[in-house]
């Protein structure tokens, strides 16, 4: 167990309807091109809506079900408005629906959105271990105090696209991550939220090379590997909490941040950031986990319902992310955001600029595991 751990011991792929105005006539930036004519402030056109339709589905309330129904409490960061529409919301809704369907109503999942039950990783892990709730989700960069299982996902510029990351998670490498997570924490991964490749936003200029990031104040996640990568690229790194990030960007406390397109839209970062660079330096995943002690208390049938629902929900989330990301990019372009696509040569300069971070990852994982990862990524690319 890591140091903090001792503190307290059928597939649904919903592609939401979009506002008619969002679909009309917006300028679309094609792949590998740069929309260079949009350095002005966002247009603020009241007829332009950025994002998928929200509040389409209500989260089911199972608080008054009978004693003969098993209720799994699930704490998630997703807002209630995104239930069933965003990629993460589709995953949660699919899991909820499939558990009830597979069990014939004998088992249901009560969702608590917007971090109602726990917000920090410490709160989530402690809540799962103490039985305050049974399921939750934690992003790949937030496990560092508990396990190094997901170091492989934090290697910058290793994964060229979402499909490669998806293939890795469905390979022996991904199985090893699950096993190490279980061993180190007593938590079992039943699914993965695939939210797309992480991009870089800022409020001052286009970024085409690491030199463009020199001394730029960037908020990054607290994972040591991700911090090392951006420091090696020349940025001035900050680790502002996610809940305070919008305000920090708005007030100029930091110049930019990195997140997938889906998060940039859902958190409205585009309102305070004029530039997006499709850096695609990392895949963005969250692990949907269940307390293994609770899982082991379930019958074989109940375990199979959870496992199957988790797999189907993962696939639904991934497909929804693929289906919606370009739509959101098109809407951001119409809104007036400058979106930069790196050329192959520009991207390679970034890849070549983080040798020390790659060495850190190899040291953390061990040489044998590192070499296995590189070989697996190469194989996964051929399958993509």
The level 1 CATH classification is: Alpha Beta
Q: β content, as a range?
A: 15-25%
Number of DSSP E strands: 10
Order of helices and strands: HEHEHEHHEEHEHEHEEHHEHHH
Q: State the helix count.
A: 13
Total individual domains: 1
Taking all Cα atoms into account, the compactness measure Rg is 21 Å
Overall description:
There is one protein chain. With 384 residues, the protein is an alpha/beta fold. It has a single domain (29-383), classed as Bacterial extracellular solute-binding protein, family 7 (D-Maltodextrin-Binding Protein, domain 2). The chain is built from 13 helices and 10 strands. Strands 1, 2, 3, 4, 5, 6, 7, 8, 9 and 10 form a 10-stranded mixed beta sheet that branches. Strand 1, helix 2 (87-103) and strand 2 form a beta-alpha-beta unit. Helix 12 (355-365) crosses helix 13.
Question: Can you summarize this structure?
Answer:
The protein is an alpha/beta fold. Helix content is 40%, strand content 15%.
What's the structural blueprint in terms of helices and strands?
Layout: H1 20-23, E1 70-75, H2 87-103, E2 107-112, H3 121-130, E3 135-139, H4 162-169, H5 172-185, E4 187-202, E5 217-219, H6 224-232, E6 236-238, H7 245-250, E7 256-260, H8 261-266, E8 275-277, E9 283-291, H9 292-297, H10 300-335, E10 338-340, H11 344-351, H12 355-365, H13 367-383
Parallel strand pairs: 1-2, 1-3, 5-6, 5-7, 8-10
Antiparallel strand pairs: 3-9, 4-7, 4-8, 4-9
């Amino acid at each position: 167990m890591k140091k903090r751990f001792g503190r307290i011991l059928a597939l649904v792929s919903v592609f939401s309807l979009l506002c008619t105005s969002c679909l009309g006539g917006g300028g679309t930036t094609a792949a590998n091109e740069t929309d260079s004519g949009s350095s002005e402030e966002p247009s603020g056109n009241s007829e332009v809506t950025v994002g998928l339709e929200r509040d389409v589905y209500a989260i089911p309330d199972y608080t008054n079900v009978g004693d003969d129904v098993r209720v799994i409490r699930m704490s998630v960061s997703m807002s209630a408005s995104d239930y069933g529409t965003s990629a993460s919301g589709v995953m949660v809704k699919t899991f909820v629906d499939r558990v009830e369907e597979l069990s014939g109503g004998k088992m249901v999942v009560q969702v608590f959105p917007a971090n109602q039950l726990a917000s920090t990783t410490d709160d989530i892990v402690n809540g799962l271990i103490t039985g305050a709730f049974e399921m939750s989700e934690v992003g790949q960069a937030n496990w560092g105090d508990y396990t190094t299982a997901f170091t492989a996902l934090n290697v910058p510029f290793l994964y060229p696209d979402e499909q490669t990351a998806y293939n890795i998670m469905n390979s022996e490498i991904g199985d090893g991550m699950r096993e190490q997570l279980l061993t180190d924490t007593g938590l079992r991964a039943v699914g993965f939220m695939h939210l797309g490749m992480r991009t870089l936003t800022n409020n001052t200029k286009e970024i085409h090379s690491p030199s463009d990031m020199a001394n730029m104040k960037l908020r990054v996640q607290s994972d040591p590997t991700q911090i090392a990568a951006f420091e090696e690229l020349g940025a001035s790194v900050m680790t502002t909490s996610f809940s305070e990030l919008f305000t920090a960007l708005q007030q100029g406390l930091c110049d930019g941040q990195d997140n997938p397109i889906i998060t940039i839209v859902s958190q409205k970062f585009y309102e305070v950031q004029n530039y997006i660079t499709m850096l695609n330096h990392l895949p963005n995943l969250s692990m949907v986990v269940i307390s293994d002690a609770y899982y082991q208390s379930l019958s074989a049938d109940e375990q199979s319902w959870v496992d199957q629902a988790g797999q189907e929900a993962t696939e639904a989330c991934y497909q929804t992310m693929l289906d919606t990301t370009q739509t959101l990019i098109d809407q951001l372009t119409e809104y007036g955001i400058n979106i930069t696509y790196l050329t192959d040569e520009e991207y390679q300069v970034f890849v070549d600029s983080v040798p020390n971070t790659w060495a850190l990852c190899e040291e953390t994982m061990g040489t044998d595991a590192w070499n296995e990862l590189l070989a697996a990524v190469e194989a996964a690319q051929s399958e993509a």
